Every structure is written in structure tokens, then in C-alpha cells.
């Protein structure tokens, strides 16, 4: 068999090869043409077997290509190219049609963005937990959405859907069914001679038993192991012996600093712990009520083993040892006095973070959580005291972004994340209640910035459904920064703490502020004026309601 080296066409024995324009021109001579004669070519034979495609491969020594080669495309190659183009076109058309149906195209509507756009296919009684599979976080870049009037329309839609509806409290028996072990450990009565809620619990271990061997805080965090190493050493010295049995003093906090993040809770904690009658948990923010008891360390990392209530109580053993020393003193035993030491706990997630409910509690038809953190705290401690530190939600959000964002931080990036979060929030409130959206884990994880944390009044109203108003002290960071002595006196009075000497008071009030903005974050400057105007419009109706609930117009944050 013979093959033309230029066009690879199989030549019959008598074929003059007239169809190849490369080999045959107007004045072509087969005898004189070096190509047809076989010069300047090196044949390369593979084997003796017959091949279906090419029997011989020839390597050219002359690499110069002529434009005439374009006319030598085989019909098969041309058909393959056309077929490939048709298939590609069909795939693109299919993607566009499918994307338009599910709202996944990168050509957004002017007003409904992201994963929570209104969807008529959802039934009115569909639960919010079902949205986990249907909705996915939007990843589009919407840096072009910097037009204030356009975003103002989104905010107007959200505002029109705001409705503050009183929540119904669950029954105590319903709470017992959800957390039977917790109710079996914590009693319903505490020691009368201690201001702090404490009780004695029988310890069944022996001298060789490590009381903290299974504590999850010690197992999962290296920085807590030093604390537990010390507790192991002093544990047996603080057991109470009675009728051949060993008892340990267990305590819960007398008060909780429940929120909000980036509102000065760390500074309040650092100052309050300097008071001689105040003790705190061994760890500043245990996050047990909101996260650890569900097995959440970081929600994006999935679930771990749930931290039992005993692990949480272990965190107060240091304070319990001091309270026990007072209880066993002669002054308390003989004169009937009581211990005035109180314990505090300062997890800034306690007020607002109920994201785990959807994974552990039965869903409700309205998409709202049937049980909240405060329901369980109140069930065990109806007399607990709660401290809330707030700040202008606009500034709080920017501070939150600067603190938690890992890379590419800028005022422009913050603006884009705010715009996308607003669009996601709008999509949710179009289909569900305000409370359902605020406590929606899927939405909260999808939003690039935590808009929901600044909706203070939504959370406060839910806490007021179980606790009396005189059990909650609400402070402003702006007041704390301008007149620290005044705010600390309010806290001391609220907790019914004893008087301080001038030296003790000076130590508490004149210490430098804690957890201030990092120097590298300060260099980024303030947020864009447009972003601030957008956020002011978004938070305004919530601030107005908060000021009404607290009877204080300072919570309108008009001067900040």
C-alpha cells in the first residue's frame, strides 16, 4: 500500500493522486517532484501487521508548512469538528436553561440574590430544616452592587416583613424529655448558706481515679490541660467526708455575661473578675450551652462527641473549692452566715447562638426552634442574673468582620459582603418569619458577615419570655468607654456586691481596655460611607424597637 506523506490519503496502485492540491499543481510533474519521487522523507515502519489507520508513519525533514494545507482537511475531521461544536452548544444551552430554573446563573436579578431567593415551589408548611438541601450559599461576586438606591429597595422589603411576635414558652416536661441526663444531674434546690447556686454531689471514685480523665475540655484543648493538672492535685483535699462517703461541691454560675460579641464583654469580664467576691469559670468562654453540649467545636468542622453537663460543672471547681472553704469556716458554721462569693460565666454566644437546634430538636411547622438556650437555663436557675453589653450594631458588624475575616480585608470587601448578606436575608424573610430566619443555621452560615448578631431586640424579647426584666442588665459599650466607673457601679449594684475600698475600685476602673482593635486592622480605616448608610437603614427598625423595650433612646445610636 502507498500513502501520500502530505495528506495521508491511501493511494490505489493506478491512482494519479490528482485530488491532492499539495502534491499536484498546474505544472506538476510526477517524475520531477521530489515529494512524489520520495526524496526528503524518512520512512518509519512499525511492524509488518496491517493497520487500519496508517500503515507507515513518515517524519518530515522539511517543517515548512504551506497555507495550502488548510485545504487538505479530511471530511471526517471536518465532520468531527462540527459535531463537537454542536455538542458544546447543546451543553451550554442546557446549563443556561437549568441554571435559570434553579436560580444558579451568574446573571442575578436586581433585587433577589443568592441562595434564599423566594421560591414558590416551597409549601407554606414546609419546615426550615428542609432548606438545608434545597438552598446552597451563593458564591457570586457582586462587587458591582454599590448603588445605594438599589440596596435600599432590598432593605425596604426586609423592613416590610419585620413582625415582632411573642414566643410561646415550652413546658418544663417537654424540656425534661429533651435533656433527661441534665435534669438528673442538676438538682432543683441549692445550699441555703451560699449566695451562689451550689450543692453537694456524692463522689464514687477512689484515690487512684482521675476525676477529670474524660473531661472533653481537657481532652480536646491543650491550653486547658494545665488547669486540669492543677485541679487533679488539689481535688482530694476539697472532698467533704460524711458517714464514710465522699462528697464534692458542685456549682453553677450565679450570673451570665451572655452577649454580644465585639461589644466589650472581654473588658467587662477582666474588670469584674478583679472584685474580691467574684469568681469565673476556669475558661473564659466555655460556649457550653450553645455549642459544646451539642458536640460543636466549630460548626464548619462537623460534630464531635457531646460534652456532658459534668464537663461543664468541672470548670467551676476552682471557685467551688473557695466557696467550700468559706462554708466550712467557723464563722459560717456558728454564726449562721453564708458565703457571698458568686461565680460568673462569660460566653458571648449565649444570647444569640441557637444554630444547633435544627440538628437535635424536632422541627416546628413554622420553621422556628421549639427550644432555646434560655429555656434550659431558666429551668435550672430561675433566679439567674444576666448581663448584656451592646454597641452600635453598625460598628459592631465592622469590628466583627475585621476580627474574624482571615484574608483580603478591606472596606470594599466588607461592602460587598454586607450587600450579599442583605440579599440572602431578604430571600429568607420573604418565605419565613423573622425569628425563623434569625435562628436559621443555613442562612447564618451562608451570610458572609453576621448581620443577625446585631438584631439585639429579637434575642432580648425571647429572653424576656422566660426571665423577668429586673434579672437582665443591658449596658452600652459607648457608655462603658466614656464613663467606666459608672457602668461598673451599675454592675456591682445589679449583682448585689459589697462595697470596695478606693484602692480596689481604682484597680478595677483604671486598668487598660481589653481586646481592643489590632494595629493591622486599624490601618484599614473605617467602612465606606455608603456601607454605613446601608447598615443604618437596615438596623434602624430593630434599634427603634429596642429603645422602646428598654425605655432608653440611647439605644437608637443616633449620635455614633
UniProtKB/TrEMBL annotation:
SUPFAM superfamilies: P-loop containing nucleoside triphosphate hydrolases. Keywords: Membrane, Transferase, Transmembrane, Transmembrane helix. Residues 253-517 form the Sulfotransferase domain. It comes from the Eukaryota. Pfam families: Sulfotransfer_1. GO terms for molecular function: N-acetylgalactosamine 4-sulfate 6-O-sulfotransferase activity. InterPro entries: CS_Sulfotransferase, P-loop_NTPase, Sulfotransferase_dom. Its EC number is 2.8.2.-. The chain crosses the membrane at residues 78-97. Belongs to the sulfotransferase 1 family. This is Sulfotransferase. It comes from Hippolais icterina.
